[in-house]
Amino acid sequence: MSRIRVQKVAEQMKKELAEIVRTSVKDPRVGFATITHVEVSGDLQHAKVLVSVLGSQEEKDGTLAALTKAAGFIRGEIARRLHMRVAPELLFRLDESGEYSDRIERVLKTIHDGEDGGSAGE
Length: 122
Description:
alpha+beta; 3-stranded mixed β-sheet; cytoplasm; 57% helix; 122 residues; flat; GMP Synthetase, Chain A, domain 3; Ribosome-binding factor A; RbfA; Ribosome-bd_factorA_CS; 20% strand; ribosomal small subunit binding
């Protein structure tokens, strides 16, 4: 299958997944979750879904467990909404990139503040 088609399917899946998680998944463990990226295999059989969750590690784990449990329902909704005969198998993973970039930013700010403090006394 063409790479462009796979990318289009992934982008449309991302939009639909966000809508499904927001409106249809009724599990109380699903907290403030955002679908950040969907990576679909070339044969459209598997999709890795990256989810960013605001909250503690327990809330993140709970949200991931709830989404994994609801994967069959979500997969059916995706197939119906995208008019696919067979929807990809969904694999949910936490997206830690936001926290990682925040940590890097704090470290850089600390380094920068340290340089400013050292040069002010000279």
